[in-house]
Design a protein that fits this description.
81 residues, mainly alpha, 3 helices, elongated, MZT1, cytoplasm, Mitotic-spindle organizing protein 1, cytoskeleton
């Protein structure tokens, strides 16, 4: 990623926030892989945005588990046909 040009402090601040955001995102993905969550990077991004918007973490985890269970049941039903 190129360095910000000029002496505009807002460009530097934006650049630093973007770098920090990418670092945080990479760390979250690494933790997710380490914990073997099976969540894609896109799904992790959605979960983080929901948490930032104020969704209760326990409620979010329960919803993810429920969706996984329902998807597994649908996949098992399709494979039996």
């Amino acid at each position: 990623m190129p360095e910000p040009s000029g002496n505009d402090p807002s460009n530097t601040n934006l650049y630093m926030r973007l770098q920090q955001s990418q670092l945080v995102r990479a760390n979250i993905q690494n933790i997710s892989q380490f914990l073997n969550t099976g969540l894609s990077p896109e799904t992790l991004d959605i979960c983080v945005k929901l948490l930032e918007a104020g969704v209760h973490p326990q409620s979010l985890s329960e919803a993810v588990i429920q969706i996984r269970n329902e998807m597994a049941a649908l996949n098992n039903g399709q494979s039996g046909e």
